[in-house]
Amino acid sequence: MNTHPYLRAFLAGAFVPTLILPLMLAGFIIFRLVLQVPIPIERGIVFPMALVPSLWGVWNMLWLVTHMRTHLAISLHGVLLPLLLMPCGALLGSGLGILALGSTGVVWFQEIHVPYVLIAPIFLCGLIGYYLVWKYIVGSVNRVLGIA
After folding, report:
1. Comparing C-alpha atoms, which of 51, 12, 42 is closest to residue 24?
2. Rounded Cα gap, residues 148 and 142, in angstroms
3. The pTM is what?
4. What is the DSSP string of 26-69?
5. Cα-Cα-Cα-Cα dihedral of 142, 6, 82, 49, to 10°?
6. CA-to-CA separations, 92 to 66, 100, 141, in angstroms, rounded
């Protein structure tokens, strides 16, 4: 019997962003439509909502493929994902006109300026979040599905 471990790994990886992204979308809708914030945030949320669950699923499949050779913990493997996503997201955002890199900071939607000094702690918090989510949630879903 073929147990389809890569399909189960994909589904386990896509589990978390599939649950979180609709909640983020609801928050963005409230922010944009109810609070009448004049920033076109829908330009920056649609593409990640389509891409992020698939990336997490493929990343979990990659962990399953490489785990026997590297013996890398799933939490550390998960921390590597934002190191790949951040430069790709910055490149895509600047290409689409959502993000502009300045001399003192980053400007989103020609409205929100974030100094580079704040980006490092925000990125560090993101790495910690990825570590915890991959260790406790994705890892436990992998164990439930019998692939860890």
Report:
1. 42
2. 5
3. 0.83
4. HHHHIIIIIS---S-THHHHHHHHHHHHHHHHHHHHHHHHHHHH
5. -100
6. 28, 11, 31
The answer to whether 43 and 96 have CB atoms below 8 angstroms apart is yes
Mention every residue, 6+ apart, whose C-beta is less than 8 A from residue 86: 123
Contact 13, 57 (CB under 8 A): yes
Tokens 């300045």 sit on residue:
102
Q: State both tokens at 6.
A: 């890569």
Phi and psi based region of residue 139 (left: phi greater than 0; alpha: psi -120 to 50; beta: remaining): alpha
* Cβ atoms within 10 Å, residue 72: 13
Q: What is the pLDDT along the chain (148 residues), one digit of tens a residue?
A: 468 899 999 999 999 999 988 888 888 888 888 888 777 776 667 777 888 899 999 999 999 999 889 999 999 999 999 999 888 888 888 888 888 988 889 988 888 888 999 988 999 999 999 999 999 999 999 999 888 7
